[in-house]
Amino acid sequence: METVKMALRTMDANKYEHLPVVSDRMQYVGVVSDAMLRNSLNPNALIESLQIERPSVADVNDIYGALGMMSQHHYSILPVAGGDGKYLGCITRQSLIDHLADMTAAHLPGGVIELETESRNFSPAVISNVAEYNSMKILSLLSQPLGTHGVRAVLKLNGHETTSVIQGLERNGYRVRQVRGGDTKYNDMLEEHYDALIRYMNA
């Protein structure tokens, strides 16, 4: 087991914020942070003598568990431990971002539409049907609660001709808040509506 001083040397050399702690038998012990080590009064103390946090996931594909834990506790890494407590590796912040980019088709071309609607009206099936009716496919769909009665959703389409999809969604009670990478025609219309609202408010 390494000392505080040795661990800090490793973290400084590699610019790590957190470091997994593993026993000689590759059993997962926990995670130490740069701040924790620097606050230690004894640089020669063994890491196992510190109050070590023990965050982990059991499956490298547990994207929701990893994302929630890393976001809530601001971890830069999250160890993966087997059922027997053996250390299997770790998920880094960068690998999580890369995985999310793949899941949301962030690297693929296409229009992005941000919507809002009432919770009772939100239906991924309806959104998908509107897209398919207009010869488009949804590459990814993310949703987020908006207060107690609303939902915000962001969908990525496999093409840039988004106007017909937007019109279909609006007919189904969805309010379009923003369009990125979509039809210039619709973006211009949104800007015109916004400018008209500003002129009305300043009148």
Summed up, what is this model?
The chain folds into two domains: 4-100, CBS-domain; 112-202, 2-Layer Sandwich (Alpha-Beta Plaits). The chain is 37% helix and 26% strand. It has helices at 4-14, 34-38, 63-73, 93-103, 124-133, 163-171, 184-202; strands at residues 18-22, 28-33, 77-81, 87-92, 112-118, 138-146, 150-157, 175-180.
SSE layout:
Layout: H1 4-14, E1 18-22, E2 28-33, H2 34-38, H3 63-73, E3 77-81, E4 87-92, H4 93-103, E5 112-118, H5 124-133, E6 138-146, E7 150-157, H6 163-171, E8 175-180, H7 184-202
Antiparallel strand pairs: 1-2, 3-4, 5-7, 5-8, 6-7
Helix pairs in contact: 3-4
Describe the structure.
The chain is an alpha+beta fold and 203 residues long. It folds into 2 domains: 97 residues, CBS-domain; 91 residues, 2-Layer Sandwich (Alpha-Beta Plaits), CATH 3.30.70. It is 37% helix and 26% strand. The chain is built from 7 helices and 8 strands. It has a 4-stranded antiparallel sheet with strand order 6-7-5-8. A two-stranded antiparallel ribbon has the order 1-2. The protein is elongated, with a radius of gyration of 24 Å. The N and C termini lie far apart (72 Å).
Helix count, DSSP H or I runs of 4 or more residues: 7
Q: Identify the CATH homologous superfamily of the largest domain.
A: CBS-domain
Biggest sheet character:
4 strands, antiparallel
Mean pLDDT: 87
Quick one: how many beta strands?
Answer: 8
The CATH architecture of the largest domain would be Roll
SSE succession: HEEHHEEHEHEEHEH
Structural class: alpha+beta
The total tally of domains equals 2
Shape: elongated
Distance between the termini: 72 Å
- The strand line-up of the biggest sheet is 6-7-5-8
Helix content: 25-40%
CATH topology of the largest domain: CBS-domain
Percent strand: 25-35%
Low-pLDDT parts are none
